[in-house]
Amino acid sequence: MKQLHLLFLLITSSAFCSQDEIGIKSLPPFMVISSEKDPSLKENEAVFEFEFINDVFKQANGTFPVIQSSYNQTLQEIQLDSSAIHVLKVTPGSYIFQFYAAYFFDEIYSDSVLIQPGYRTKVQLRFTDAEEMIISDKPVIYLYPPTDLAITATVKPKGAFTFTYPVYENGWKGIAHPDGSITINQSTYPYLFWEAKNTISLASINLNEGFIVTQEQTIAFLEEQLTKMGLNDREKTDFITYWGPRMIGNERNFVQFLFNDACNQFADLQIDPAPEQLFRVYMIWLPLTENPSIVPTPQVIQTVNREQFYAIEWGGSELLTLKLP
User: Which residues of 157-169 are buried (b: 16+ CB within 10 A; e: fewer)?
Assistant: First the structure.
């Protein structure tokens, strides 16, 4: 279970504003939008109509999630369909609700909700993304100009730097060399190095795409995938000697690679003058149980174009709090 948020019930005039007016993200997680007499109900009946407004529930492409819920401590599983609406018939009275949608979202709690005899009460539910604090571990930047070239590289992490080498002073300014090294203030470095602390939305992780890698397969798997990406021997060695010892401590791991624009969620990277290709790859991974519940489709691996002036950045993060059943 993720962090629990005690959420309030909003039954004021602002509850009737349209989503276009105030925006989906500004809506409270549990919001009563109407409560009206329903002539089809008997006097000893009442109905709650719940609409789950997260896009992920309305665009499930035929695979609709099961929501764990409870009302007045009565447990219930809700199997959604394309309408993303669940109707619950109850006896009139006061109810306290709880909803939980897997490990990607924070739970929803309501205050006590009173429903009158013969009334239909419509409620909109919006799950907020669960987040994890992570370290963007050892992102390194190699610059490969055809000839020596004066460059400026600027990294803007989504969180805060925890370490840089060489020292980062509003960017790195130096002379990049064709072998990938860079000279700054009379010292030459094999690459630019930074780490930062930031958060990642667990809902942004697509567990349906990636790889399940056993302990014995780890090194061969990394060698194979990095070769597909077009990394050279030095880059592969740097990558594997950093990540390999950490990953083989687990019986199996879920591994997913994020490429290029997808890496902007960790940091923005600007290089001046701009290379013909900037190839970025981040690896996210997490330990799995003995019998993992996911069966991901192997993802398509992208490849660097090593022509003219190009740059490569790799990094990654281990997800520590996301635990799969």
Answer: bebeeeebeeebe
